[in-house]
Automatic annotation (TrEMBL):
Main localization category: membrane
Gene Ontology molecular function, alphabetical: transmembrane transporter activity
Listed CDD domains: MFS_LmrB_MDR_like
Membrane topology: Multi-pass membrane protein
Source organism (scientific name): Stenotrophomonas panacihumi
Superkingdom classification of source: Bacteria
Protein's name according to its UniProt entry: MFS transporter
Places the protein is found: Cell membrane
GO cellular component, one term: plasma membrane
Record lineage: Bacteria, Pseudomonadati, Pseudomonadota, Gammaproteobacteria, Lysobacterales
Keywords in alphabetical order: Cell membrane, Membrane, Transmembrane, Transmembrane helix, Transport
Pfam families on file: MFS_1 (PF07690)
């Protein structure tokens, strides 16, 4: 008779998964403060570097739907090892890029590895940890997701100043080697209970739709695509997503069953996540650009200015439980979405003559309401799913989160290009274009209030909010 593993015996696995999550979350934030330095080195405009951000997010979004099937088919151990190798190789390729196109291609390789790291790590924990210890284990591995964004921008700025932007990616190499060696000894090898056929047709349609719409958003600015081709990509992307919808209605084992959307809270939550995160996804790109290009800050100082955003975000997660329990999901999301949009637009008021205290307060308030938005949105999206729908529902939510981040970066780049052209600003004085872009992304976020308005006035048990980690 097999003895169930104790929590203490599973600590090495939890540390390994935490390391993988930390590596991915660090990479998601460390790049942003280095973008102006990358642009200078590669001979590009700092206002047109959004493809470095959105290509990674899009690659992660594209490969998340396949991660669960790959792990069931080839085992969690083999898949996790491959993910670390691909992610580390992608980091090395990023550091060696000589042109923007090479850097974007390398970021896609990184994204493929990153798409597997987090979901496979969580899956290994889910299948290894006893149910009574699962919440404790998930709380443990959620810590790196908070620490990565806290130190990422500052570390990125420091590396740019003391070395070069290449070290933003090279820092992943020793972490990747340590993770690989540890995974060889620690990662368990779990397989799916029954082998299912992969929904390749649905996956191709879904992936093409995401890529086409992302390229259409970005095509206005950096890619220089003509209007007719942008329209073609948009129509083709929408057609592919509608095609997937019709395909999933009849497929025996679709990637994401349409039964998910029969749950009202999930349907509203997933759409609200998509539109709300488009604005939020643009901010990690826009704020460092405003601080460095608009206000002339050094990369290190710009990174330090992001610390209040992360600290306030960590603090506000605790407030989410009390607020939602007292006022309900609908009221909190309606009011907080307006606050997030207003705080985004408030960055249009930033100018070089303002006192630093005002900027710190502004960044902290934005970080607090933005983090509260994520926590409450995630909770309301997953709260009513039954056990059978929990896995595909969570995977779809993860995909939408990354897809919206990519859309946000692409939309921000397009808006910057449009306003730069309209206002006739040069790259050395892009403050007006940045200010106008902040107002627009704030307005985009405000539109999601129309979606959250459809929620019923429900209040959760406090534990339901506590169990959801961003």
């Amino acid at each position: 008779m097999n003895t169930p593993p104790t929590y203490a015996s599973l600590r090495p696995l939890l540390w390994l998964v935490s390391l993988a999550i930390f590596m991915q979350m660090l990479d998601s934030t460390i790049v942003n403060t280095a973008l102006p330095a990358m642009a200078s080195s590669l001979g590009e405009s700092p206002l047109q570097m959004q493809s470095v951000v959105f290509s990674y997010a899009l690659a992660v979004a594209m490969f998340i739907p396949a991660s669960g099937w790959v792990a069931d088919r080839y085992g969690t151990r083999r898949t996790f090892l491959a993910a670390i190798i691909v992610f580390t190789l992608g980091s090395l390729l990023c550091a060696g890029a000589q042109q923007l196109g090479q850097l974007v291609a390398a970021r896609v390789v990184q994204g493929i590895g990153g798409a597997m790291l987090l979901p496979i790590g969580r899956l290994a924990v889910l299948r290894s940890v006893p149910r009574e210890e699962f919440l404790r284990a998930m709380s443990f591995i959620a810590i790196p997701a908070l620490i990565g964004p806290l130190i990422g921008p500052t570390l990125g700025g420091w590396l740019v100043e003391v070395a070069s932007w290449h070290w933003v990616f090279l820092i992943n190499l020793p972490i990747g080697v340590i993770g690989l060696v540890a995974a060889l000894k620690i990662m368990p090898d779990h397989y799916g209970a029954q082998r299912q056929r992969f929904d390749l047709t649905g996956y191709v349609m879904l992936a093409f739709g995401m890529v086409a719409l992302s390229l259409a958003l970005d095509g206005i600015s950096e890619l220089g695509l003509r209007s007719a081709f942008v329209m073609l990509l948009t129509i083709g992307g929408l057609a592919a997503l509608i095609g997937y919808w019709l395909h999933a209605a009849n497929a025996k084992a679709p990637l994401f069953p349409l039964a998910l959307f029969r749950v009202a809270s999930y349907r509203i939550g997933i759409l609200g996540n998509l539109f709300s995160r488009i604005g939020s996804g643009s901010m990690p790109l826009l704020i460092p650009l405003l601080l460095q290009v608009g206000l002339g800050m050094s990369p290190m100082n710009a990174g330090l200015m992001m610390v209040p955003v992360a600290l306030a975000g960590m603090a506000s997660k605790r407030a989410a439980v009390r607020l939602v329990t007292r006022f309900g999901y609908r009221r909190v999301l309606m009011i907080n979405t307006v606050l997030v949009g207003v705080m985004m637009a408030s960055f249009a008021l930033v100018d070089p003559g303002q006192h630093i205290v005002w900027r710190l307060v502004q960044l902290a308030v934005f970080g607090a309401v933005n983090s509260l938005q994520f926590t409450v949105m995630n909770t309301v999206t997953l709260r009513d799913l039954d056990r059978d729908m929990a896995s595909p529902g969570n995977s779809l939510l993860s995909m939408v989160m990354m897809l919206a981040t990519g859309f946000g970066a692409a939309a921000a780049g397009s808006l910057l290009a449009a306003f730069s052209h309209h206002l006739g600003v040069d790259h050395g004085d892009a403050t007006e274009a940045l200010h106008a872009t902040f107002v627009c992304v704030g307005a985009i976020t405000l539109t999601s209030t129309l979606i959250f308005w459809q929620l019923s006035d429900i209040r959760p048990e406090p534990r339901q909010v506590e169990e959801v980690a961003e």
